[in-house]
Each structure stands twice: as C-alpha cells, then as structure tokens.
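Input sequence (438 aa), recorded before submission:
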Amino acid sequence: MSVAADLLVHGGDILTVDDAGTLVRDGAVAVHDGEILAVGPAEELCARYAAADTLDATGCLVLPGLVNTHTHLAMTLLRGRADDVTLQGFLERVIRWESELLSPRNVAAAVRVAVAESVRAGVTSALDMYWFHEAAERVAQESGWRLHTGPTFMDVPDPADGIAYEDRLEWARRDLAARPARPGTRPILFAHSTYTLSPDQLTDIATLARDFGALLHIHAAENATEVATVEAAHGKRPVELLDSLGLLGPDLLLAHAVDLTGPEIVALARTGTSVAHCPVSNLKLGCGIAPVPRLLGAGVTVGLGTDGAVSSNTLDLLGAVRQAALVHKAGGDPTAVGAEQAVRMATIEGARALGLDAHLGSLEAGKRADLIVLDLNRPHLTPRHDAWSMLAYAAQSSDVRDTVVDGRVLMRDRALTTLDETAALADLEALSDVEALS
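Predicted structure, token format:
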C-alpha cells in the first residue's frame, strides 16, 4: 500500500550534503507536513509514496536550500546608493538615510523584493538583522519563506524605529515571549556591534538572549578601523571584549570576523562561537579577507552570508560560494577552501552556525523540506563531472529552477508561486526615489 506524501521530487541527482556527502543518482525526496520522509532511489520512492504534488527533476541536481547567515534584507531599498566607499563612510551614509526613510511599510516593500530575489537564487532561509523586523516577518510568512529575525539593539540618538535604548530590553522581552515555536526556527536577538553598544548593554542583551535560549548575532572585527576604535574605547579588541564579558559561546554568531589575531581564533574555537563569512561585502568595502582557512583549521563553524544589498549589491549566495572558494586561494594555496567546503558553508555549516543543523542544511529524513532544483541543461554546467565543483565554480543563481521551503513550492519552473513579483518590483521602485539624499 502506498504512503501518502504532499510532495515528491524525483528523477534528478540528489546531493544530500550529509556527513558522507552522499549523491543519489536518479533519486527522489518524499515530503509530508513540511518534513522529509525519505531520500533514496527514484524507482523505490515513486513506488512507495503517493504524492499530491510532484517535481520532475530529470536532468537536474537537487540539493538543500541555501542558508544566508548574515544579511539586511530591507537594504534593497538603498541598493547602489553607497558604492566605492569604506565601511565607515558606508555607515555614515546609511544610518542617516535609514532614520529618514524607514517605516514598516517601506521595510515590507523592500523585504518583499529581497524575498523574491532570494527565492530565485535558491536561498531558502536567511538571518536578517534590521529595523522593523515585525514587518519583515509578515512578508516572509505571507510568502512561505523561512526568515530568522528578531529585535535589534543599536544605541544611536535617533533609532529608525523610534524605540530608545532604555525601552528596548522590555520591548524585546515581550517580543520573544510572544514568539511561537516553529520547526526550523529559533529565537534571535541582534546586537549591532561593540562600537554602537556599551559593555553593560552587551551584557544585558546577552542575558536576555540566554533567558530565552536565543541566538545572539553581532557584527565584530569587520575591519582594522573598527578594531582600533573599540580598542581605544575599551582597551580591548572586539573579540577580546566579547570574551572578557563572557559572551563568546555556541549561541553567539559573529558577522564578518575579518581582523582576528591567533589568540582570538583560539578563543572562538574554544568557546564554540561561529562566524558568518561575507566575502563579497568584505572585498567591496575594502575590509580585507577573513582568515577562513585558519578558522576552519581551528574547528570554528563558518557559514556564508551576502550582507545587505547596499554593501554587496545582490543577495546571490551562490556568488558568495564562488567568492569563498576563490578568494582564499590568493595566498598561493589552491586547497585553502575547496569546492565542497564552500558549498557546505552555504548549506549545512550555515545551519550549524544558526544552531539549526538538526532541522536544516541537508536532505535527510526528519529534517525540514527546504530544497532547490538546479537545472543542469546549461552550457556552463556541461559536462557534469563533479557536483561540488559545478556548484562552487560554475553554477549561477539563474540556474535555480525550483525552490521549496517547508515542503511548499515557492518557485516552480522559475515562476514565483506565492509572491506577486511584478507588483513587488513596482512598489519598491516607487519608494526608491532618494535623489535628495547626498
């Protein structure tokens, strides 16, 4: 007797990204209630499961959805408005513009386009640090996309959402207390950085995060100027400061971590602190190249992020995979970050950095059904010798044909199914007249 399933993806090669790196030729993935029931040979699974919906992946590669471990989705509103500047010049412009432009409506419009871009690029979930996170969550829920977000802390005179720092802890506590538990998600808090928050504030935020078992995400050591600023203010470098405050640990995820010393890398490994590597924005802002090979060698979990569409200009995580696989070879070692490692950073290692690797990041029974189907019938993907190599060095976001989140098909045959893309683009274009800003 057949077993009922909601979705059966069959006929393609399945790159599971499990510990063994299993590739199932002519395989299938069976899904029910948003969960993967089984992964195996197509002939076997097609005989066992009767599915309400199917995706024929013949001639395609099926793999886990990509996990973006650091971004600012609503920054699509300012795409192209802060190019060819340093990190500090970038921040001076953007923080001022945000206070003038941001509102729940504008954030929703910008996130709607960011979700469309992400779904098209095979990104099935993202860790999003930004103002008005409630508006972003509504957009994600409407479109069925997996968004990891929560309250952001940044002690500036005029926060974009109008909530002064002294009121933010209680506001964030209420937000976390009201947050329902959902498979494949967890509570999140965002502390902007060690240069926009005091040590006492950082300690209070971390205490709140621990009260709720939340992941705490923070920018740290993005460039040498930031490190010097923090050291001048506190007598310690950013990672040293976080360590001295007892904030390093498995529930802390650092964004960037470009300017690190050897002892700081040891501290990250010792405490189980993870890193979100954003190679495109780091290069574009002239921040440098994060010491990813040394981090990996020390046993630090490293995921991949795009950063926002102002500092990286796209939310194309496959582009970040390629950059991560290439930029670290500049030191003369072509094995510094290999193809498989780069792909894992965008999938299972990204999920691990979020503390969600039991639910996301690989195609295995019992995990959430977040997957993408990559069309291999393309000149730049022919011939097909090695799936890892193809993904890291040749694949493009435009090769993604289908995107599935929690078993729901969000893009089928390159057409978005849950979001009106034409209307979303028009709405953002209408909001993007910022010519008066200089």
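Checked by second reader. The first helix runs from residue 42 to 48.
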